Amino acid sequence: MRGAGVSASMLAAAMLSAVLLVAVSAPAASAQPGAAQQDAAADPADEPAAAASAESAAAPEDPAGMQELGGQVGMEMGGRVSPGGFHVLGSYLYRLSDVDWFEGGLSVTVGGGGAGCFRDREDDFLCDHSLAHGFGLEALAGVRRFFAGQGKFSPFARGAIGVRVVSFGADDVSGLAIPLILGGGIRARVADHLAVVGGADLRLGVGWFSRDLGSEPHLTLAVHAGVEFRL
User: Fold this and answer.
1) N or C, which end of the chain is more exposed by having fewer CB within 10 Å?
2) Which of the 8 DSSP states describes residue 150?
């Protein structure tokens, strides 16, 4: 009888020890999934901020501001009845889209004043001025498109229509030309509101001139460089 009582007591003690062990280990086991869940819940919260930071780092800078004013100087090469010489261009930019800007401007070309017109054997009045002769005053309007660049450099192309007053004073010849302007260049931002720009323009059109010249082709090539300011 005593042996049975001792066995029962030992069995009860073992069962009590097992119950206590389960009770002690259960909170620790339940705490670990909670911590894992908190970590899992914390990770998605960080993802939008990380994504936004990555997008902002990868976002390209605007090549130009909403409105800008610019000035450029260079040389224009003409010939015959197309003026050439020292070339000054002032421009105004207004943003139309992410890549397109309206571009309006005024240009002045001042060349030499030597005579270049004559009458041939058939008494026809002809002009054959050099590359840097004459005077031109022009108003132009068109569109400038920027392309993907690298860093602070942004290449662009432009297309415009000009209305140009042309004069060759030594020959008493004047006229009006309407050229199509096609060109391009590159722009480099050097400060928040300042960029340097350089490029070249081809002018191709027709002009109407005095002294029985009538209509004549208008063809010039201009290269220039300058600065543009963000308003």
Assistant:
1) N
2) B
Number of helices (H) and strands (E) in the chain: give both, helices first. Answer: 1, 10
Give the list of residues 6+ apart from residue 192 with CB closer than 8 angstroms, or none. Answer: 230
Q: Please state, in angstroms and rounded to a whole number, the distance separating the CA atoms of residues 193 and 104.
A: 19
Q: What is the pLDDT of residues 34-44, one digit of tens each?
A: 444 444 444 55
- The CA-atom distances, in angstroms, between 187 and each of 58, 104, 150, 157, 191 are 20, 17, 11, 11, 12
- The DSSP 8-state label assigned to residue 99 in this structure reads S
Characterize 173-185 residue by residue with b for buried, 16 or more Cβ atoms within 10 angstroms of its Cβ, and e for exposed.
Answer: bbbebebebebbb
Backbone angles phi, psi at 182, to 5 degrees: -125, 130
The pair of three-digit structure tokens given for residue 196, joined into one six-digit string = 């340097």
Calpha distance 122→66 (Å, rounded)? 57
Calculate the CA 75 to chain-centre distance.
24
Rounded CA gap, 171 and 189, in Å?
A: 44
Q: Which residue's structure tokens are 């000054």?
A: 88
What backbone phi and psi angles, to 5 degrees, belong to 56? -65, -35
Residue corresponding to tokens 């009888």: 1
pLDDT tops 70 at residue 219? yes
Q: Give tens-digit pLDDT for 85-119.
A: 999 999 999 999 999 999 999 999 999 888 899 99
